[in-house]
Amino acid sequence: MVNKQDYYDVLGVSRNVDEAELKKAYRRHAMKYHPDRNEGDTKAEERFKEIKEAYDVLSDSQKRAAYDQFGHAGVDTSAAGHGGFSGAGFGDIFGDVFGDIFGGGQGGRVHRGVDLRYNLELSLEQAVSGTTVKIRVPKMVACDICNGSGAKKGSTPQSCSTCGGVGQVRMQQGFFSVQQTCPQCRGAGKIITDPCSTCRGQGRVKDTKTISVKVPEGVDNGDRIRLTGEGEIAEHNGPPGDLYVHVTVKEHPIFAREDTDLYCEVPISFTIAALGGELEVPTLDGKVKLKIPTETQSGKLFRLRLKGVRSVRSSTKGDLLCRVIVETPVKLDNKQKELLREFEQSILNQGTKNSPQAHSWMNGVKRFFDSMTG
């Protein structure tokens, strides 16, 4: 009696291997040693027989238990690995490995409809507070006449004779056997012999649908809203794609948005900047009072807490930041000009007291030129 190699060693696996790893090891070894890939190689043929025999035993839970307890004596292998390969061609193994990718044996392939994109322009107020808008979207929809089947009313699609309704055919390429989409039915598994005249057998027609879009509070430029199943329907009642609504927020005449904060520029007079005062400034919730302290410089930023916007991704609300810009008076009459000249002279008489920034800047300029000539 010839001593047989241990089945676990034949497949190169441990004794506690699980079913998935066992199958993976069998596929790997079987593809390597299959006679279709090793024509005329008797050693490869014998090796393949051993691999097939080992897998037949270890993949059966009862046989595996008996083998683990009694070894080769515990299983009947008289038919395994002798006199052929039990009908297992290389194409069967290859198809088993890649069947999930090509959808082998799963019936006709179901194609999903195309996703659509719609560009939605909103005002800042709509984006911040949220809204519901109705949009009109041109897309492919199910044909009402044939209810999406593509077949003329009163008739039904027939099973494809080329692929037997599977939607795929097996093609031999050298020693490889691969599954491909059936050229007759294009993967549908069915043939329409009497097509619907309205949709010409596609099961769908072009139409424009009105869709209600709920815009959540706080959306911003670049955000998108996904409407599941509102894309185009696939041919022959296949599942529809999705509709993606891309948000663009129009430029606002007063506010600029950055994340959850709002920014605005507030022009103030020279007098208020110097003496201080109180202004009314707008927010998205209404007007609020903004106190301007004395000696405020142009460009000063004032923060109004929680007067910004709430993010669509959190409940945190931002702030409103007001940048004051001191406005230079224009279109002055002669009396106003004379008053300003008198005021300017009074400032100069005070030396650097009333304009420390100008004095500091002039000193810096003087040092710069001195260093160049020095």
Q: TL;DR of this structure?
A:
The chain is an alpha+beta fold and 374 residues long. The protein has nine helices and 15 strands. The strands form six sheets. The protein has a four-stranded mixed β-sheet with strand order 10-11-15-14.
Describe this structure as you would to a colleague:
Strand 10 and strand 11 form a beta hairpin. Helices cover 28% and strands 26% of the residues. The longest helix has 18 residues. Helix 2 packs antiparallel against helix 3. The chain has four domains: 82 residues, Orthogonal Bundle (Helix Hairpins), CATH 1.10.287; 134 residues, Ribbon (Chaperone, DNAj Protein, Chain A), CATH 2.10.230.10; 72 residues, Urease metallochaperone UreE, N-terminal domain (HSP40/DNAj peptide-binding domain, Sandwich), CATH 2.60.260.20; 40 residues, no CATH class. With 374 residues, it is an alpha+beta fold. About 8% of the residues have low confidence. The strands form six sheets. A four-stranded mixed β-sheet has the order 10-11-15-14. The chain starts with 6 loop residues before the first helix and ends with a helix.
